[in-house]
Amino acid sequence: MKLYDFDGMFDKKLSEYISKNAGKYKEEEWEDIIPEMYAKFGNTVLKSLGTSPNGYYAAMGEDELVRCLRAHVKNGVPVSEFLCKAIEARPRCKDLLLPLLESGEEGLKQYVVNILGAAPEAIPVYMRLILSGDDEDFKNQCADFIKEDADIVKEQALDNYKNGVEKPLMLEILSKVKERDERIFAILLNEFLGGEDVPMHAGYLASYGDERALPYLMEKIDEDGISYVEYQELKYAIEALGGEYTKQRDFSGDEYYELIHSHSVSSADIFSAFQDGAEGSGGLKN
Q1: Over the stretch 208-220, which tens digit does the pLDDT of each residue have?
Q2: Where are the beta strands (DSSP E) in the chain?
Q3: Which of 256, 249, 260 is closest to 274 using CA atoms?
Q4: How crowded is the C-beta side of 240, counted as CA atoms within 13 Å?
Q5: Residue 262: which pLDDT band, with cuts at 50, 70 and 90?
Q6: Do 46 and 64 contact (CB within 8 A), yes or no?
Q7: More confident: 267 or 46
Q8: Which residue has the higher pLDDT, 256 or 41?
Q9: CA–CA separation, 207 vs 242, rounded Å?
Q10: What is the mean pLDDT of residues 57-84?
Q11: Rounded distance between C-alpha atoms, residue 125 and residue 99, angstroms
Q12: pLDDT tens digits, residue range 134-161?
């Protein structure tokens, strides 16, 4: 099987095009033009190949496509979007990719996760990878896909939380479970009432969507000692659950409040810098 660096070919043609059209387009225009050029390149017949990049992969069977991906990674040949999309388009490829998640082949699992995404078949495997891996970024990526269909691994997440295994990630996952479960509500509420990282845990309550959390959020937001960041996240959580907090508060002297007002920076800009990264939680770090 011959491996082609289609991205390298495209980069070469792109460099030539940019050189010929220097100063013709603004930077933001290039951001639209380059993806369009890449998509067009995928359907361009290459003389050296006799077909287009998309045509090259379309002619392969499912087994061959997966072998091609493995060969690219093993030999350090860049994996193009054309190959990934060809694999994504074949439902049977999912069954062939799943075993590769835990195969131990260096560098391969990142591509497999990106291709499988939140496929229901992959979510239990992602949970196992979270528990066995050391790469925090990779574990967070797996958790992000799990959260798209968290009900599949609800019981595992509850057991892991109970046993103190990856508790922060388990809380994120539990907050995304759609089925109402008293155990989950009790966990999320107890974490919030514990008083640590109020913005994050308020975000988890908002994400879970149980209106019974409203009285506890209202009580907390009414406390005199809360910070401006905590206030904003609590207010968001209250509104997300259908409530409203209208009491005027004075945060003069608060670090982030003063930063916003002294530099004319929007609160959205300030709070985005302190987000904990949990998708949809709106959580902030102090």
Answers
A1: 999 999 999 999 9
A2: none
A3: 256
A4: 20
A5: confident
A6: no
A7: 46
A8: 41
A9: 12
A10: 97
A11: 9
A12: 789 999 999 999 999 999 999 999 999 9
C-alpha distances (whole Å) from 155 to each of 42, 127, 148, 227, 270 are: 44, 11, 16, 35, 37
pTM: 0.80
- C-alpha to C-alpha distance for 54 and 45, rounded to whole angstroms: 9
What does the DSSP 8-state code read for residue 284? B
Question: How do the residues of the chain divide into helix, strand and coil, expressed in percent and rounded to 5?
Answer: 65, 0, 35
**Contact of 284 with 229, CB cutoff 8 Å:** yes
What is the Cα–Cα distance from 147 to 132, expressed in whole angstroms? 18
Residue-level pLDDT at 282: 39
CB-based contacts of 207, cutoff 8 Å, min separation 6: 175, 176, 278, 280, 281, 282
Structure-token pair, residue 41 = 């390149």
DSSP state of 142: H
DSSP, collapsed to helix, strand or coil, labels residue 166 as coil
Name the 3-class secondary structure at 64: helix
Q: Give Cβ neighbours of residue 159 (< 8 Å, ≥ 6 apart).
A: none
Please name the residues in contact with 143: beta carbons below 8 A apart, sequence gap of 6 or more: 126, 130, 169, 172, 173
Higher-confidence position of 280 and 47: 47
Cα distance between residue 249 and residue 224, in whole Å: 9
3-state class (DSSP) for residue 192 = helix
CB distance 61 to 89 below 8 Å: no
Q: Is residue 274's pLDDT more than 60? A: no
Residue type at 280?
G
Tokens of 220: 């907390």
Identify the pLDDT of residue 148. Answer: 97
